[in-house]
Design brief:
The chain is α/β, with parallel strands linked by helices. The chain is 28% helix and 22% strand. A 9-stranded mixed sheet has the order 10-9-8-7-11-6-12-14-13, with helices on both faces. Strands 2-1-3-4-5 form a 5-stranded mixed sheet, with helices on both faces. α4 (115-122) links the parallel β4 (100-103) and β5.
Amino acid sequence: MTPFATPVAAMQHALALAARGLGSVEPNPPVGAVIVDDVGQCLGEGWHQRYGGPHAEVHALEQAGSSARGATLYVTLEPCCHFGKTPPCSQAVIAAGVKRVVIAMSDPNPRVAGEGIAELKAAGIEVEVGLCEAEARALTAPFVRWMTERRPWLHAKWAMTLDGKIASRTGHSQWISGPESRAKVHELRGRMDAIIVGIGTVLADDPLLTARPPGPRTATRMVIDPQARMPLTSQLVQTAREAPVLWLVADHLTPDHTAAIEAAGVERLSLPHDNQHGFPLKGLLSILGQRSMTHVLIEGGGKLLGRVFDAGLIDEYHIFIAPKLIGGAEAPSPLGGIGGEWIPNTPSLLHPTIVTVGEDVYIHGRTTSSSQR
């Protein structure tokens, strides 16, 4: 490997390594590490590859071996200093004889939160914090959200026509997007902890909501269904023993309404519900956070997406625009609900990526509001 010309180049490589763990390491954060000598030559590198497995620093130190003594370690997140699924990385770095450690950002985990840095300094290691911090914070934003607020990072996805419709006035929607876009959605599902739809989508489309082919994660498929209308014959119920299904119903319903579906392997979650405000969305996200879910995808429909949008809870958007036109004043749009009143105050996508996927256009980005929270 060509020597890194600058410290920034070394840290950017560590960040690229860290991104390889997305979808496999949650609820842990993605972390990358690079060990270099005095001229910038890479001696070892690694990333956190799977939850419960060795951390990035351990992989890099193993690859560097004895050459790590006197070298510099670039790592995207403060080394942990506690026993969890694995021993503390701070002690491994000290034992290897690393001379200098450059850290992109400190760890928001209260069990670390500067203690790893303190351990390194106490051992006589030179420590620098903040190189490429903005990039590291962007990469770990879902982890930081879960660690500090105990709720998941919320993704929203939809496919729509050029005139902004997600279905015709009759409710027909298959297929608006092309096969390449649908493959992209399956890839996205494979990185999620949960996928949420409303009962309207279940009744209209009878979706399966699995990743095909499977990804690194198996998402819990969640249906918001206050009146318990999900059919026993639906694909979700029929495959509940193959992939988890979480069924959110109003807490006033008696067990007789739900017994048969629960017997099929569906987990029922009962929460307070009223016709005006629906379920408490923040409370629901807190429940998912308590289950260590860090990435959750809202797939629709427009009523559910609109409620989540109105609540200001969407962090990241995945929008597929197909070169089709439906028309019709009664054809639904992606975001129902109340909507914004004053355009300058509505959220925008921050540095969105816009690419062609087959015949469709895929727009992906985080919101300005989520970057400020």
